[in-house]
Amino acid sequence: MKNDFFIPTYKRIDIDLAAATGAYLIDKNNDKYLDLFAGLGVNALGYAHPKILKAVTEQISNFGHLSNYFITDVQNNLAAKLLSISDMDKLFFTNSGTESTEAALKLVRKNFGPDKKIFSLTNSFHGRTYGALSLTARTNYRKGFEPFLTNIGTIEFNNKEGLKKKIDQNTAAIFIEFIQGEAGINEVSNDFVSELNRLKEKFNFLVVADEIQSGIGRTGKAFAYNYYDILPDIILVAKAIGGGLPLGAMLVNKNLSNVFFQGDHGTTFGGNPVSCAAGLVVLEEIFENGLLEKVSELGSYLKDQLKIIQNKYIQIIKDVRGKGFMIGIELSLSCKTIVDEMLKRKILINCTNSNVIRLLPPLIIDKEQINYFLENFEDVISKLDKV
Ligand SMILES: *Cc1c(COP(=O)(O)O)cnc(C)c1O
Fold this sequence. Notes:
binds pyridoxal-5'-phosphate
């Protein structure tokens, strides 16, 4: 496909797409590709889900965009559902993940003033705009873009002692992906979280859960933090919540409902009614029509099967980790050969951090499709082994 018009920020996959349905992308030759990263975790209900099509069509024939001078039923209904699955009190709708991070950064600054320090963890990813990038610790995303916001620091991932050393009465907040996505599916340890809880009690800082990739049922629970003994003060969502349309949100607890007042923050498109209509279908399917339980069950199956393959090819597969449909397969070599070979077999897998295969299948993927992936994956690995 011609790529002459675009500033070259992306590595493109060489498929000429014509359509998409369920867990499949379809190219112009009518070849079907099983998509195991689903718009990078966005297309939770797959492509062209009939209920999303219906909801979006109905909504846009009533009204599409309205300014945020108005509030509508569809926004109200989505907000109520999101808050009810999260134990949070109020929310602010955005269009994207990085905007959810920005909203939280501004709220934290407004609440604590300019001098208190905000932390993130090594290898974290919180977005690409300047505030979010100031938090994002991954050096390849930061290089060349200094200077960043001040009073932001980094704590080593899962390092309890590092946490203890850096957190004090001068700490405003810590941003955490409880399962790091871009970094290669790294799970925060229970030990780290209990130290975090202890320090939080003592110093009263905020815990901001970045659930932009891990939230909305991706891990088999509503949010990745649900796997831990912790309740964050702020939750950031985006990616899956819009069912393929741009939507995100910052959710806050009761103590933080009255930090922003009229005019303190805003967005033109955030909370777009059409996106919210799609979002309602996403939440209904996942949390009311049994999809969450399926993710939990099939996610465990997928991980167990991958562990069996790992045990056969331990010199190639170093680790299998993650929860639900957020799985990382760490290799002792770069992913490229395997990703390319799987692409030849019309199976799309994503590679992150150069040697971790990241699986983020649509939550609607079925067991047969998972088995098809597993058979091909094992076959590719077994052929590598002989080289
Ligand atoms: C994708 C992602 C973001 C950024 O979201 P955008 O919609 O690309 O701005 C932030 N945090 C995490 C954990 C993400 O996975």
